[in-house]
Amino acid sequence: MSDGEEKAQKTENKKSLASASGSSSSQKQETDARANAPKTDAPKTDAPKTETTPSSSSPTPTPSAPVSSTAPSSSPKAVPAAKPTVSPGASRTDSPTAATSSAPETPKSRRDFLKLATLFGGALVALPFVPFGEFLSASGGGGKLERQRIIGPDGQFVRVSGAGSIPPNSSTVFTYPRTGDPKLDFEPFRRWVLIRLPSPDGDKDDVSAYRAFSQICVHLWCLWQYRDSTKSINCPCHGSIYDPSTGVAVEGPATMQSPPMNALAKLDLEVDEQGYVTVIPPVMDVNNNGVVGRGRHVA
Fold first, then answer.
1. Which of 85, 108, 128, 212 could form a disulfide with 267 if both were Cys (CB 3.0 to 4.6 A apart)?
2. Each residue of 121-138: pLDDT tens digit?
3. Where would I find the beta strands (DSSP E) of the chain?
4. Class of domain 121-279
């Protein structure tokens, strides 16, 4: 082999060795790069990861790990939680706060009922203290407190005895004072009951056999009836019972009321020259004939 051929052979061998060395170095760099590359099978977390800008020798990151385009200047700041939004059409009670604030208050109807009950109760207390004469004037007037014969439901005057009288242990309702106006004459405060007492007092043919009391119970202003079966005045509302000879309560809630509110208002009677039972003009106060609905003092 000539010197020229030997030199060419050596040059070729050197190139082969350099190529092999370069290939080995490239394989080593590739192996190191793969070893240094971030693992993509790491468990995912709720918050996205932020990585530094990769060097030119690092492989491109996989899509599963988002990379920010810029390197963070400092530690990441906490991001405030977004406030919940409510669509315009949503109900106000969708959120707990709205549900709490919309809790029902005390019903207005209940407050109104208590107010009305208080006013009504006050009226019940105050009205009985109005004098009877003033009540008649305030309620439309008419009907003077004057002497009037008693007219029964049949439209006939009541006599003390004989034809036109009522039998012992019985009663009849009448109006006093009469006005001639059917509407006014039907007012409860003008309604009285003429009672002929049971025997033996009711057997007398004179005015002492009769009593006349207001039909308004002094307890809660119900209209009472005379019961011949028990020979007593009975109020059907709350069970108050009155003695027909005096008009004083003997049983029931009316007995627990202090005088004068334990006795019925009454009218004084006489017999006129023709034998008709007649009302004497009364003095309507608690110390005399009493006040309708309030009562009277009994000596």
1. 212
2. 444 444 444 444 444 443
3. 148-149, 170-175, 191-196, 210-214, 225-227, 232-234, 241-242, 249-251, 269-271, 277-279
4. mainly beta
